[in-house]
Amino acid sequence: MSGGNEGGRAGGVARHGDGSGPFAAWAEVDLPGGLSRIAGLPALARTTERDLGRLPYAIRVLLENALRHCGRGFVKEGDVLALLDWDAAAAERSELAFMPGRVLLQDFTGVPCVVDLAALRSAVARAGGDPAVVNPRVPVDLVVDHSVQVDYAGVPDACLRNMQLEMQRNRERYGLLRWAQGEFGNLRVIPPGVGICHQVNLEYLADVVRRDGGAGPAGAGAADLPWVYPDTVIGTDSHTTMINGLGVLGWGVGGIEAEAVMLGRPYFMLVPQVVGVRLAGKLTREATATDLVLTVTELLRAVGVVDRFVEYFGPGAEGLPPADRATVANMSPEYGATCGFFAVDGETVAYLRQTGRSAELCDRVEAYCEAQGLFRYPGSPEPEYSRVVELDLGEVRPSLAGPRRPQDRVPLEDMARRFHQDLPGLSKGREEVSKSRVELDGGRESLRDGDVVIASITSCTNTSNAGLMLAAGLLARRAVELGLTPKPWVRTSLAPGSRAVTGYLAAAGLLEPLEALGFAVVGYGCATCIGNSGPLPAELERAVADDDLVVAAVLSGNRNFEARIHPSVRANYLASPPLVVAYALAGTVDMDLTSGPLGTRSDGRPVYLRDLWPSPDEVAAQAAVALRPASFRGDYEAALKGTEEWQTLDVPRGALYSWQKNSTYVREPPFFRGIGPEPVSPADIRAANVLAIFGDSVTTDHISPAGAIAPTSPAGKYLAAQGVAPVDFNTYGARRGNHEVLLRGTFANPRLRNLMAEGREGGWTTHHPSGELVTIYDAAVRHSAVSAPLVIFAGKEYGTGSSRDWAAKGTALLGVRAVLAESFERIHRGNLVGMGVLPLELEPGVTVESLGLDGSELVDIQGISAGLAPGATVRVRVWRPSLRQRLSIRAAAPEGAVYDDTAGVEKAGAGPVPEGRTFTCRARLDSAVDVEYFEHGGILPRVLREALSRPPASPR
After folding, report:
1. Phi, psi (rounded to 5 degrees) for 780
2. What does the DSSP 8-state code read for residue 205?
3. What digits encode the pLDDT tens for the residues 818-841?
């Protein structure tokens, strides 16, 4: 497929007149919905004599985007040709200005975005500019989905009670969002109680092919014609990637990058390598889409796909329904890829019809993608890929993943052995099983290591998948029929990804058996998977703490990092929804579910998992009855109105947000204060103190403020000083509009391990030169008082996990100038650059361990002031000063010591500098735009300076 037909029709779409625009490739065509303009890929291929068919489908989507925006100012003809000539094996990759069609926000990351935009308006107004220049220029959807907490579970009215508490706790934040929806054009807020952003995107927001009047360059001719183009999206949740299962190219970015795109700047990226995953065969009766994605995550983590696109193809991919594809695409961040893409095909169109999309849209998707070479047919020729990985679906086996990372897959039959193998690492060295007696609901129970205290069918990954949810319901129904119940120490919950899930479970008659086992709906939002799992019984928590028990959680989520699910639960396992129900019945992970009984019938006969497991035919029969397009349409029409309490919120008015000085939820952030019209060139870093030293796999969960706020923490003390009672502290996520809280909560994770903390877990470090063990926040305050710059050292995969912009914002506000790590995860690296923090990659062979650091060192980084190019190297020197030298440096040079390598600390008069160790690092400024942002001190100062230089623009 190299280009289409030469005549008036291309792929069944009628053309009108000759081509125009770059490469004469813009065309007027008849499509369902009317006459439209397209950036024609077949015409481009003909004009340039290139073979479109050799390109991966994801690259074709990028190519259309570049062609449509070519000549607009950011994209040149050479950029289009670079994509046409995409080299699968190229190590050196060119930069691309990608213009996403829309932006998706969830409220934990969306509230900071709105706060930043409101602060940007205030900054523009203070500078004498027009605040209306600050307005989203692309469509933005903000889905309120991360604020519900599971205070009530296992009872029929849990959802109602949790939502009432949600509104009470978040009224001020929600008022801010309602203000933003009224004052910013192009911003739509999806109210609480609708579903998680990924599933709402999949079932409702995504068009696959969009049609609007603002998608192409102005002055293109025939301005009255709307453009038709592939739906593309970036989101502030890393699992935005779920939408790739529907053929929509999208991925997660940091909130500050999303803000730049919202305000009209491109998302700058390097043209990616694309790893092809050829799927063959089909899943067995016992295997689920969850088992598939856990297998894929393990496989691709071993292969190494960080910063790459993954594209699935082959007969196995063609046979996967879109819900299964979405499950696999969702976990792209867990296997490290930018995205996991499935091309549009007949299954895609069928899913759009099934979920209630209009006939016109479905017809347009099919016609447009066929005409553009974006439609994958069964047996289509394989594109070229940077590498091809093979997976036979028939070899996928029932699995879980844990106890700490999603890539650590555990075969179901191996769970007991692996738990005992992991127990010493979870219990600080203990190998023998610990036990405890605990009072629960009037009875005395024996609790032991491995017992499941949380079993949650939670919203991420799996609840978009009707097959998995129906399978869980069928298993629950059979368990109820046989008289089985969960163990009394298990806290069960069901947080569907959307109201549509509740609708089809009810239509299939499966909601009642789930409720009978305690899996009553607790809310529609991201719950257990991000730690909003609610409280465990106080007696149980005391037993866990007093007897050092390693209890477990089993959840149908996508992340199980330390302390993410619940601070008292050390072993966390990802599993399919039906397995979550099974483990609630078993009550422990310390058994083999493939051979051991889950419980007994009333007559004493054992019940095994095989007795409960539904067949694929049973699931398909339920789906045929329960999945109705009209139900999807009706559920969304009702839910999008919001509750009466949402509709009657007190909403501020006016173009400028009225900041309340006494607010503990929404404060004007400091990011735009003191910014001049021109950037100040970054200087070399001299005599920086080390704030923390971390090992491998430090996640954004470890870095970013998340979970409950402890009364004894710096954030808790701050709130108490503001007159907030501990019962009203809420979570760090709910207070993401207040930088004072989040600054104090950065690096506060209770499972964080800093090598400078004398073996103590949590947000602790050793302050130098005093040698005192203090919180990381308090150490940063002390260093700031003497104007000491700070650096952090870390191992591999620094910043893996969610796209949490506050992991970078908090780092920057603590005074960290550079992070030196063995490797970085994509999103967090970009976030650091976006906040003006320099990410430095240690040279091969240099590790945190080999440097022999203890944190008392000072660090010099030279080569910054001379100007950095993409991928430049800098010289790093690590040395240990005497106490006299350290104090003299700080006293004489508050901005850091000024010296050269031969004369010592000249201004300090402290004698010669010890030699220490010198090595080079690669500056992970991967593109010219990275360099630009770093030189401006981050994206936000760059955006402010740009906003002050341009007139208001109408949103598109």
Report:
1. -65, -40
2. I
3. 999 999 988 889 889 999 999 999
Name the percent of the chain in helix, strand, coil, to the closest 5.
35, 20, 45
Q: What is the DSSP letter of 218?
A: T
pLDDT, tens digit, 9 for 90 and up, residues 686-703: 999 999 999 998 988 899
Instruction: Write the DSSP symbol of residue 874.
Output: E
Range scoring the smallest mean pLDDT among 305-314, 339-348, 937-946? 937-946
Look at the block and give the residue holding tokens 């024996």: 446
Residue 336: DSSP 8-state: T
The tokens for 90 are 């190229």
Q: At what angle do helices 107-126 and 939-947 cross, to 10 degrees?
A: 40
The crossing angle, in degrees rounded to 10, of helices 346-354 and 629-639 is 60
pLDDT, tens digit (0-9, with 9 covering 90-100), for 485-525: 999 999 999 999 899 999 999 999 999 999 999 999 988 88
Q: Please, what sign has the CA dihedral across residues 528, 530, 535, 541? A: positive
* 299, containing H or E segment: helix 289-303
- pTM attached to this predicted model: 0.85
Residue of 915, 910, 881, 895 whose CA lies nearest to 769: 881
Q: How would you classify residue 837: left for phi > 0, otherwise alpha for psi between -120 and 50, otherwise beta?
A: beta
Residue 9's closest CA among 42, 52, 34, 45?
Answer: 42
Q: For residue 549, how many C-alpha atoms fall within 13 Å in the half-sphere facing its CB?
A: 27
Q: Is the pLDDT of residue 67 over 70?
A: yes
Tokens matching residue 705? 């403020």
Comparing CA positions, the residue from 58, 61, 70 lying closest to residue 26 is 70
Structure tokens at 676: 């001049």
Cα angle 222-3-58, degrees, rounded to a multiple of 5:
85
